[in-house]
Design goal:
461 residues, eleven-stranded mixed beta sheet, three-stranded antiparallel beta sheet, 15 helices
Length: 461
């Protein structure tokens, strides 16, 4: 493609006040209003003692402005200025400067972040009632809990400390902050965030997990899930007595990776070799000559009682996946590596293993957020960063809900960056023929059908 004109150096001017760079914010924020986001913020987020006079005035429109900026691609406080460009101020009321929004974030305390967490849960329920965000929740539900360490730099970040993380399979110490998140998903719906909490980098992975699991279970049940159809999954950091008891008390099922210890190793040693069954993973390759899977993964199970001698004692199944050690070349004396997990499900052992390994779906949420609002922790104030983290979760759920209204299957599980590019970042010109606002979008836009389907689904009700 080549330029069709010999442009002069002075032929580009930023002077059009009716152009909108993110027209997708119109149906997105209308969906937010229809699901009561502003009302929830009014009810739950209250400021009574501002450190900066009027710093928290008009908190609700300021917070919705932050969500809108995140949906438009902002990953720092300065980037929130994107919502003030062109005719955006004519489409929405309560558009604030980035500096003003930063002042509001710095007014947050721990109590205010808990209030914002209540908004996150209630708004998720409202989105699930308004859209097919959690399609199939009455049949099967997965709740996944996980954490990560987000590195930060400099000495101004309150709460930043050294914690353990893995890079290229090796455990290293990095200075950062550690968000803990719980997602809800179904076989037909992408994971959404039921709860998220920012912690210091040195916080243990499982710190505060039991209360967040309980919150997520209550949220899923309120959204229409049967506790008996809920499976809570997590890695070994969350296989604790408190977490397992919380799940069992709610009437749900659990599937947690369990740490190897003498008791677990003794249970594994009781499994005879002939009891191990080959497991076929999605995308497995079959040898064309033998017809056998090119894989050495095998699974077996044995009854197991965890947390013996405590009030959290629980009996379930120890499902063990074993694979040949890559460093072992002698076929006569194979050396196996064992990967056990503890569960109370009743599905066949191979299905239990496949379902447990799908816990990795929560990594898609991490990647979406890191590609978007979580690219930075934008403030030196820990409560401000905690509020930013929760607002990013609200934005994530809102984008997911909007994607389910496009009538396009690919968008229901698309990356967050894809949703922002295809549904939000669409240029438009604002006109007012006969005093009726009209958005003129580009002709031959490749995603016009999906975008108009979203528009009609939002504004037709």
């Amino acid at each position: 493609m080549q330029a069709s004109h010999a442009w002069r150096g002075d032929s580009a001017v930023f002077d059009e006040g009716n152009l909108v760079s993110h027209a997708g914010l119109v149906p997105l924020l209308e969906l937010a209003e229809q699901t009561g986001l502003s009302q929830l913020l009014d009810e739950h987020v209250r400021f009574v003692d501002e450190r900066v006079k009027s710093g928290a005035a008009n908190a609700t429109p300021k917070l919705t402005s932050i969500v809108a900026g995140m949906a438009a691609g902002a990953d720092s406080i300065d980037d929130l200025d994107v919502i003030r460009a062109g005719g955006t101020g004519k489409l929405f009321s309560g558009v604030y400067a980035a500096a003003t929004l930063g002042i509001l974030l710095r007014e947050f305390t721990h109590g205010h972040t808990r209030q914002l967490s209540a908004v996150l849960r209630r708004h998720l329920l409202a989105l699930a009632a308004r859209t097919p965000l959690l399609a199939g929740i009455d049949e099967r539900v997965f709740i996944d809990i996980d954490s990560l360490l987000r590195p930060v730099y400099g000495h101004a970040k309150h709460g930043a400390s050294f914690g353990h993380t893995k890079i290229a399979g090796k455990t290293v110490l990095r200075r950062g902050l550690s968000p803990l998140a719980v997602t809800i998903s179904t076989p037909n719906a992408a994971p959404v965030l039921a709860a998220v909490r920012l912690r210091a980098g040195r916080a243990g992975s499982g710190r505060g997990a039991a209360s967040m699991v309980t919150e997520a279970l209550n949220t899923a049940v309120s959204a229409g899930a049967d506790p008996a159809n809920i499976l809570v999954r997590g890695d070994s950091a969350y296989c604790s007595g408190k977490n397992v008891t919380a799940v069992v008390k709610a009437g749900a099922q659990f599937s947690f990776t369990i740490t190897r210890n003498p008791a677990v190793d003794a249970a594994i040693a009781t499994i005879p070799d002939e009891q191990y069954t080959p497991v076929r993973y999605p995308g497995a390759v079959i040898d064309p000559d033998t017809g056998q899977l090119i894989s050495d993964a095998q699974v077996a199970e044995v009854p197991y009682t965890a947390f013996t001698g405590t009030r959290h004692e629980t009996t379930g199944r120890l499902v063990v996946r074993r694979v040949l050690d890559a460093n072992t070349q002698d076929p006569l004396f194979p050396v196996w590596r064992y990967h056990p997990f503890f569960t109370n499900t009743t599905t066949p052992v191979t299905d239990a293993d496949l379902t447990h390994r799908q816990h990795a779906i929560c990594e898609t949420v991490w990647s979406d957020l890191i590609d978007g609002p979580w690219a930075h922790q934008p403030s030196g104030s820990f409560p401000a960063n905690a509020a930013w983290t929760i607002l990013a979760a609200i934005c994530h759920n809102l984008l997911r809900a909007a994607s389910t209204l496009t009538g396009t299957t690919r968008y229901t599980k698309a990356r967050g960056a894809t949703l922002r590019t295809h549904l939000i970042t669409i240029p438009a010109r604002l006109a007012r023929p006969q005093h009726r606002p009209t958005l003129h979008l580009p002709a031959h836009w490749p995603r016009a059908a999906a975008w108009l389907t979203l528009w009609n689904a939002v504004f037709a009700t």
